[in-house]
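Please review the protein record below. Let me know how this chain folds according to its tokens.
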Amino acid sequence: MAVCGVQNTYVHSASHPSGQAALFLDRPNLMSTDQDGRLIRATEVNRPEDMPLIHWILEFDKGSELSIGGLTHTCPKSNRFIATYDPLNFVLHIDGGFDLAMRQAKNPLETILLSGYQMLSEPLQGGGSGLKRIEESWEAVDAWKLAHPGCMVHFEFASTQDLAIRKALAENLAPRADSVGCNEQEAIQVLEALGEAALARECAQSLDSVTLFRGCSGFSRNSRWGACSCTCSASMSPFAKPSWRQDSECIRNGMALAATLAAAKAGTGSLEREENLLWAHGSEVSDISIKELQNLAAWLKQSHGMQDFEETGMGECASFRVVAMPTILIDKPVTLVGMGDTISSLSLVGAR
């Protein structure tokens, strides 16, 4: 977001010693908080008392082979495995200086991108309640919103293995957010947590655009979520409340921005330099994405009378509206780390 021109991007770091500060891009609009709670360049922050947090990210390509015990396994798609040492984030630690900075109206704040809950457990490792930490964290978010009227909260629902935590997030935290993001596997997990077992099984078996879109009805049937609109792409489906009054064309433009930049990130490995941003501009969208859009358009026309959806990617009826964007697929991506965050943040901010 900082490279794409967002005026100020504030990054919360549970731990921020100088070694981790050196991993941030050195940009004046990419900021975090020092030990005194001042917002400064993230690269200049040094909280020397903070413990270093280490992640090992192991990436592998489609077609990679591994032979074990005489059997050869072939990887069906490019992906990664992240081995984590992260004791602070296992308890959803919020830095006090960052919390204080976000409560001050002098630091302009328009959009909060909320994530990290997938690492919680119930009970917490070492004692305490993960469910309580969810509520305590939202108290901080509420204070940030109070200091910045009109601020929007997007909750990124990452893969959450602890069923009690997942259920609490789906039933209690997600309905408070203005927008919720998840990929297809995470959507299935949310449906399971909400008691929509049949829909979850149907989505898991098909994983096509129509089935996944029908799965969205499981969200809107939950009384806490209320009615919701759905924005779909080939790789994620964020759900936004009707209170988020974005024009459908703005949403579509934000999705086009995110799809283009996500392809650039996959193809070049990094969006750290401005010259990489338009690397995928002008590329053709994938045939798979076009086919899924056509199938969804046909179903929406038959079941809800939506016209011209295939041509525009936008539709609306009495109970919901939908925007869909076919995406660019990169056959041999350089990296997939952070792809979901790239799509979520840029589609959301780009639409605003």
The two ends are 13 Å apart (CA to CA). The chain has one domain: 103-351.
